[in-house]
Known about the structure:
With 254 residues, this protein is an alpha/beta fold. It has helices at residues 23-34, 46-56, 98-126, 147-167, 185-198, 202-210, 222-232; strands at 14-18, 38-43, 59-62, 80-83, 129-134, 172-179, 244-247.
Amino acid sequence: MARNVDSVNLRGRTAVVTGAASGIGRACATALAEAGAKVRVLDLDADRAHEVAAAIGGEAHVVDLSEPQNVVHLAEGADVLVNNAGFQVVRPLEEFPPDQFRRMLAVMVEAPFQLIQAALPHMYAQGWGRIVNVSSVHGLRASAYKAGYVTAKHALEGLSKVAAVEGGPHGVTSNCVNPGYVRTPLVEKQIADQAAAHGIPEQEVIEQVLLARSAMKQLIEPEQVAGLVLYLCSPAAAFINGASLSMDGAWTAQ
Ligand code: NAD
């Protein structure tokens, strides 16, 4: 899929992508490597992290971001930081497991916070840095049964804006990208679960359950999100800072 990578030159740059072994993170790592960056692939999944790193000439780092203090050193020296790792738990509030809630905040808020903290000194010293936080429509809107995810993504939005305000004078931008449903293992699992739960075909789950609020009844491809992430690293995007860029088929426009 076309990503217009030709116009973005990241040769000599180091990019850190969390959750880069799968889905959106993998597509981002690939796009950044194609643009010339040396990519650090951070993920819990050792086999896939090594597979992706080998495919793109990057480095695999097998890490658990729910314990961010063990991981922060990996963001030192990064020119581009993509905070992407995340996961979903779907339960009504009164049954939502507190340990899962805490883990979601650790992986999707605390780890980005600590990685940004570790990345900033190098970015400030050179007067250039790009932080991209993979948020979601759920960083802007709520859905039932997603207390941990919606809370974490809203918090990530706040963190991203503070990084934008502090980083701007140093040439460092921080933005969120806010996809609707993207065709990745995270969503394919939800589709299969919902089809089984409702006793309806998977295509019906996509159109009538997941994308009920979208004006476009198709899943987004991970490469399309990666294209937006790459654009945020381009010279044309230098003044996009503190933004939340929706890619959701007009879901949040309604
Ligand atoms: P995915 O499940 O395909 O990939 C997520 C990756 O994160 C996996 O490789 C997983 O191993 C890694 N990961 C999870 N917990 C980790 C931990 N504790 N330490 C290290 N790595 C860990 O999911 P995806 O759909 O590509 O999602 C990537 C990001 O995009 C997430 O933040 C998600 O919230 C966001 N997002 C996804 C969608 C979608 O529809 N798929 C929509 C909006 C936002």
